[in-house]
Amino acid sequence: MAFLKSFGSWLPERVVTSEEAASWVGTDAQWVKNVSGIIERRFASDSETVADLAARAGADCLERAGTLASAVKMLLVSSGSSERQFPGPASAAAQKLGLNDIPAIDLPLASAGSLFAMSLASKLAEQVGEILVIGAEKMSRLVAREPRERGVAVLFGDGAGACLVSRESGMCEVVDSQISSDGNFSEDLYADADSPIRMNGRSVILQASRKIPGSIRAVLERQGVLPDQVAAFLMHQANQNLIVRIAEALGVPVERFYSNIERYGNTSSASMLIAAAEWCREHTFTPGEPVVFAGFGAGFHWGALLARAV
Known about the structure:
alpha+beta; 9-stranded mixed sheet; 11 helices; 36% helix
């Protein structure tokens, strides 16, 4: 048994409008909004690292949980935009958070990484204890690489989100999860060490719009829950048009899908946890109500997690 105890987030101060982003690739802000739903995004400063972002979101999460750093027994950090090939940001984030001598594990999975980490943490918590999950991305480093592609460079922003998974108590109990991977599509979304992001947009949208509803249906059906009984769908914020497609595929009003992509853009593996943190600040859980987390990303990796408020 595992519980989601709290969520946290951190966003950089610098706001980059879609007018500015559109100017990089010879288009306009209305086009960016039409294809993605994004109006603005946040960029970190040159001196801020992925580990810095991760530590700030983690600290926010622990503060909201009323949990001391000494209570955390494992740290899982997902990032696809780390400055170094190794070590990843997990060990540095642990040091900044004062998490001493615990396993600090990197999951270098873009976009779907925080969902994978939550699923793994929910299975490990009973054995390990409190596990802090963080998704942190500095996508502005990748966006700055030339040549900038019109359909890619305007999509991304920086930020970090966090979740504390507990074996003892929390706002929601994790009921079920399903995570999957398919390497047949690994060439459709990737970034080499010094190259821009390469994306086959048509393939990504097509596969995501099929695979995400499939995973959501699988966990709901196993637990006897209908899609229209779910109080909220907290997804990776990739593209507003994709969110609408998934809502339509499940036959659920799109208003059930929390969305903040217009303000932050696509923050890759951080986005789902940032959305969850904001949603939790704005809503009060009703005991027994189901909540679904879902994500999809490069690899391809995807999945869904079902939790129930307690």
